[in-house]
Amino acid sequence: MNLPEGAAADEVPGVAPRLRDLRRNRGLTLETAARRAELSPAHLSRLETGHRQPSLPMLLGLARIYGTTVSELLGEMPPERDAIVRGGPLGAGAEADGWRYRQAGGSGRAMQALRVHVPHGTESELVRVHPGEEWLYVLEGRLRVALGESLHDLEAGDSAHFDSLTPHRIAALDREGAQLLFVHTLLQSSAAELCLGNGIHRL
Questions:
Q1: If we measure between CA atoms, which residue out of 84, 171, 175, 98 comes closest to residue 136?
Q2: DSSP H helices in 2-150
Q3: Model pLDDT for residues 61-114, shown as the tens digit of each residue
């Protein structure tokens, strides 16, 4: 589906206002969104006002930037998602570099929720900086969270919610490690690029 650039605005009804609303809901300026989509601000403005129709590559790029799908951009009804994720032993998930994790939320959404076992200790390469937000809640053990230049020691029941552009690092203080719930927005980062260290793969 490659729509001609000069196509009439009513050929894909509703795309223009959805593009504008999604950009605004994501807190992106026209210039920022256009730069990330490799478009000129004027071109993106014409797409948002319906004076131009997006090609499929443009729709794919904008869907990725806004954390949605082309089908939803086009107003198609998405298949019903299962709202329930059944629990299970943490070992049933995946492991990389000592981190054990399993999916704790549905797929295809703007956030990824994980249940994570954090191993004892830390390494400098675990520092991460990327777009988005992160929220974590300590279930068991003690966790050290470095946010920029500040250090915070968290215990079971404590949580942290921060902008992922802040340089951050997390490490377990106890030899048994720590268990936590972890939620990360996927607006700009792929699902495989979590701040859990190298080698993390999508569940």
A1: 171
A2: 15-25, 30-36, 41-49, 56-66, 70-73
A3: 888 788 777 767 777 655 566 666 666 665 556 666 677 767 777 666 667 788
Assigned token pair, 163: 């902008």
Report the interhelical angle of 15-25 vs 41-49 (nearest 10°). 120
Torsions phi, psi for 41 (to 5 deg): -55, -35
The DSSP call for residue 17 is H
Dihedral of CA atoms 1, 41, 193, 185 in degrees, nearest 10, equals: -90
For residue 198, what are the contacts with CB-CB under 8 A and spacing of at least 6? 96, 97, 125
Cα Dmax for the chain: 63
Report pLDDT for 3.
39
Contact between 164 and 128 (Cβ < 8 Å): yes
What's the CA gap between 102 and 105, in Å, rounded?
9
DSSP, collapsed to helix, strand or coil, labels residue 16 as helix
Of 142, 93, 140, 143, the residue nearest 113 (C-alpha): 93
Q: What is the DSSP string of 105-144?
A: S-SSSSEEEEEEEEPBB--GGG-B--SSEEEEEEEES-EE
Tell me the backbone φ, ψ of residue 10, rounded to 5 degrees: -85, 5
Instruction: Note the pTM of the prediction, 2 decimals.
Output: 0.53
In the three-class reduction of DSSP (H, G, I as helix; E, B as strand; rest coil), residue 5 is classed as coil
